[in-house]
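Morning!

As promised:
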Amino acid sequence: MSQPEVVTGIGELRARLEGRRVALVPTMGALHAGHLSLVDRASELADTVVVSIFVNPLQFGPAEDLERYPRDLAGDLAALDGRGVAYVFAPDASEMYPDGRPQITVRGGAVAELFEGRSRPGHFDGMLTVVAKLLGIVRPEFALFGQKDAQQLFLVQRMVRDLDIATRIEPVETVREPDGLALSSRNRYLSPAERAAAPALHRALEAAASAGDRGIDAVIAAAQSVLMGEELVGVDYLKVVDPRTFQPVPDDYRGPARVLIAAQVGPARLIDNDAIYLN
Ligand code: PAF
């Protein structure tokens, strides 16, 4: 197995993929072991694996990290070496958006305005728009998304269902550092002290899960007490949602749920989540 071929044009990519069964791994580059687990799962699902690398300006707010978002195509290709990826699709913004901001975009609706969407207005509409374009360009049988971005995954699954897009969305478990920190391209922004504080998000999720049999207030209190113990972790939100609707669960809810945490740790906005069961 060798390095993937880098393709930058939509027409070129379509010509190469004609008649193939494809699994797509959409990324913004700065690949880490979390992305590589998506790639490995993709190669179990289809003969031709395509990784897209595109830092999508549409999903960044004006005060966000679009300019300094890490870009390292050579490093990304080295990481993919020998992993069975046929093509890396690495278009520039003028290939994806030849007229600048597109006139027609995907709107994520009510769920896109909660949680991450409240803190990052327009983020999910921009993300869904680029994912819809990538699915239209590549026409994959499968597209793989990490569970770490649970709200993104939920919205992509809804988009595919609501718009009858013929791609199966395959969720892949979060990959973690040995101390529990979920892998993220933004972890590289952390100073050593911030890096040491960041696993509090995962510890809070574990505390939440172990309080599941005492009800929602106990779940929130358990997670909060872990997070409050780390002064470098500034919590943005801590929520428990129904995985079927992604809406916050009512106080008397019983059944499967997902705990979501977002926090500012120094310059990095970190998110994490896990499944729990509320008795
Ligand atoms: O999760 C990401 O890296 C991005 O949101 C995605 C799905 C590649 C769309 O730009």
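The mean pLDDT is 97.

Hope this helps with the figure draft.
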